[in-house]
Amino acid sequence: MKKLFLVLFLMSFFNSKSQSFDCGTSTVTDADGNLYHTVQIGSQCWMKENMRTTKYSNGQAVGIPGIIGSKFYETINMKGKLQVIVHLTEADKISTQVYDMSGRLVKESNLYCDAGNTLLDFFMGPTGYYIVQIKSKKTESNFEVMGGEQADIEISVVQNTSSNLKSKSDTIVLSHFSRYCFDYDNDPANTEKFGKLYTSLSALNVDSTHYGHPIQGVCPDNWHVATDNDWVQLEITAGMDSNEAINGIEYFRGNISNKLKSIGLEYWDPNFGTDDFGFSARGSGLYSISGNFNEGWGFFYLTQSCCWWTYRPYQDHGLLMLRELTDISRGVFSGFTYDNWALSVRCIRNQ
Predict the structure, then answer these.
(1) Is residue 160 very low, low, confident or very high in pLDDT (cuts 50, 70, 90)?
(2) Which domains does the chain have, with CATH numbers?
(3) N or C: which end of the chain has fewer CB within 10 A?
(4) Could you tell me which of 193, 137, 196, 199 has the C-alpha nearest to residue 173?
(5) What SS3 class is residue 168?
C-alpha cells in the first residue's frame, strides 16, 4: 500500500513538473487551437502575437467573424432616413414593406439582389413612425424609423456584387453592442500574420460600464487583456520616463516604440523596428467607421499602425482605452477611444 501511494505521489509530482509554465519557453493555445509564443519582459509575461481566436475559453463564440450568412445591417436610422445593407450569401429576391403604426401597408417594393451587399436607402415621410420589414427566403428584419418632412416614401437601391466586405465603401456599423471579429480585408492570411481585429465587446466580453481588473476577454485561462497599468509597466521597462508613462494621455509619449516593433518590411512599411525585448508588435491595422479618417470607413493602415484595446478601472465602472504604435512615430500613443472601432488584442499572464 505504501509503495502504491509512493508511485502515485511521484507520478503526480512529475506530471505537475511537466505541466509547469516557463515564460519565454512555454507556449499557449486558445480555444481554436491557435498557438502563441511567450516572452518575459521585466516582471511581466506577454504573448508575442496578437489574438486570433473566434472563441472564448469556455467555447462560446466571440462574435460574427466578418459576415456569416444572409443578414440585414442597419447603418443609418434618423428622422426621415433609414439605410440598410442587405448581405446575401446567394442571389435572392428581396421584398420590402413599410407599415405605419396602425399596421397599414403604405409602401411595398420587390427587387432581385445578387450575392454580396446591396445598399437600401429609405427616405421616409410624412411625419410619424413606421415599421420597415425586409425579407428574403432565409432571413427577415424589422426596423422602426421616424418619418421626415417629405410627402412620400422613396426607396433607393445601390447594388454591390462583391461577396465579401472588401471595399472601404462597405461597412458594418459598430457600437458597444457589437460583437464582431474581422480578418483584415476579410483575408485569413492577414489574421495568420497580424491577428484578428475585435470590437470592444468581443475583446473584453463585458459592456462599456463594467471594466474591472483584470478582464480575461478573448484571452486563454490564466491570461487577461492587458490593462493600462500593464502597458505603463511595459513602457517603463522599455525605457520610457515613468512620469510620462503614468500621466501622459492623448499623445505619443516617449521614444521607445521601435524597441517593441517586429523587424521586417512585411510587418511595417517603412520599418524601423529593433524588437529589443521580443514583444514583436506588427502593423495590424484597424477597422473603423468613426468618420475620423479622410478615407471614410473600412480597413485602414495595415503595416502602418497597430492599435490594441486596453482599459482603466475607474470608480464603479471603467474607461475604454487604446495603445498605438505607428510605422514612423518613435512614441507610444495612449488615449481614450470609441466603441465603433475594431482593434487588436494582446494578452498578458495573470500575476
Answers:
(1) very low
(2) 21-64+176-349 (no CATH), 69-160 (2.60.40.1930)
(3) N
(4) 199
(5) coil
